[in-house]
Amino acid sequence: MPPRGQRIRETIAQLRERILAGEWPVGSRIPTEPQLVAALGVGRNTVREAVRALQHAGVLECRQGSGTYVVSTDELAPVVARQLTDDRMTEVIEVRRAFEVEAARLAALRRTPEDLAALDDALAAREAAWHGGRADEFVEADIALHTAVVAAAHNRMLAELYSSVGTALRSSLTQTIGATMTPEHPIDHARLVDAIRAGDPERAAREAGAFLEPVPKA
Fold first, then answer.
1. Which Pfam families does the record associate with it (predicted)?
2. What secondary structure letter does DSSP report for 185?
3. Tens-digit pLDDT string for the chain (218 aa)
4. What is the per-residue DSSP string for 53-90?
């Protein structure tokens, strides 16, 4: 019988694996404690400690009288979200610059034909959303394009970290576009995609950082 601490760590890993595999999607209720005991073959206290650890990590949430629900698949995302305040928006943009500039540089070196096709599709969707004039649709389309750039970098850790700042990314984008959400004031990323296609890492990095300036303080 492994030590109790090891059993708890193994149970946490099993729960996390099932969540990441989509067995319990975000928003769904996980099985009850007795059901988890039977499914995982461990004791009640072990299950309880493992669930509590994932609650502290922001992956699970206990709702009184209803059960325990999956609220995130990413333990880092809730941590980032708690740090997101208006007075830290400059820091958010600096972090975006660090991720997106390096991702663009790597993408120019590593992109595949499939990556380029995905970038073209994402760019077309972004431009359509801009001309449609709906800020919420544009924000999602812009995120999709930058996510495609990160994917083209073929660095799994970078992709996972970038995914973790999703809430902060949406907030910074919403604040950045603000009242400029009009067809007459486009924020063009075609040159970014062209630089990646051309395999020019320096130009791709320059284009990625061109619009990531700190938000002026009021």
1. FCD (PF07729), GntR (PF00392)
2. S
3. 556 688 899 999 999 889 888 899 877 899 999 999 999 999 999 999 999 988 887 788 888 888 999 877 766 666 665 655 555 667 777 888 889 999 999 999 999 999 999 999 999 999 888 888 777 788 888 888 998 999 999 998 888 778 777 666 766 676 666 555 555 556 789 999 999 999 999 999 999 988 776 544 44
4. HHHHTTSEEEETTTEEEE--S-SHHHHHHHH--GGGHH
Supply 103's token pair: 């991702």
Domain 4-73 = CATH 3.10.350.10: no
Kindly report the pTM of this predicted structure.
Answer: 0.63
Q: 155-158 long-range contacts, Cβ below 8 Å, gap at least 24? A: 155/103, 155/106, 158/99, 158/102, 158/103, 158/106
From residue 27, alpha-carbon distances to 23, 61, 216 in Å are 12, 10, 37
Q: Do domains 4-73 and 78-209 have the same CATH topology?
A: no
Burial class (CB in 10 A: 0-12, 13-18, 19+), 210: middle
Q: Place domain 78-209 in its CATH homologous superfamily.
A: GntR ligand-binding domain-like (1.20.120.530)
